[in-house]
Amino acid sequence: MSMTVIVTRNVSPRVRGFLASVLLEMAPGVYSAPRLSPAVRDRIWDVLESWFPHEVDASIVMVWQSHDMPGGQDAKMLGTPKIGLVEVDGILLSRREIPSKSVDM
């Protein structure tokens, strides 16, 4: 079991209420649990994934300790901007795609 933190942006009251029922809301949109099992963390994420298509301009990030990952943590993300995690020289970094600019001729 490890510390789990979820940060939300522009989510509906339904999502906020659900998260507040299973985690402690430390600040507006920031939820944590000091000892959350991987099974419970996965069930929470499954609910968030199933509800997320009904959200508008929202994002959710879940972070937890993981001894298997570089840097000792892992994360899952929903929403915008699209961010991916990559390992570079044993360090876990976040990566965003740069939107291509159209050139008018």
Description:
The N and C termini lie far apart (57 Å). The chain has helices at residues 13-22, 38-51; strands spanning 2-9, 24-27, 30-36, 59-65, 73-79, 83-88, 91-96. The longest helix is centred in the middle third of the chain and has 14 residues, at 38-51. The protein has 105 residues and is an alpha+beta fold. The mean pLDDT is 87. The strands form two sheets. A five-stranded antiparallel beta sheet has the order 2-3-1-4-5, with helices on one face. The protein has a two-stranded antiparallel ribbon with strand order 6-7. A hairpin with a 2-residue loop joins strand 2 (24-27) and strand 3 (30-36). The radius of gyration is 16 Å and the shape is flat. It has two helices and seven strands; from the N terminus they run E-H-E-E-H-E-E-E-E.
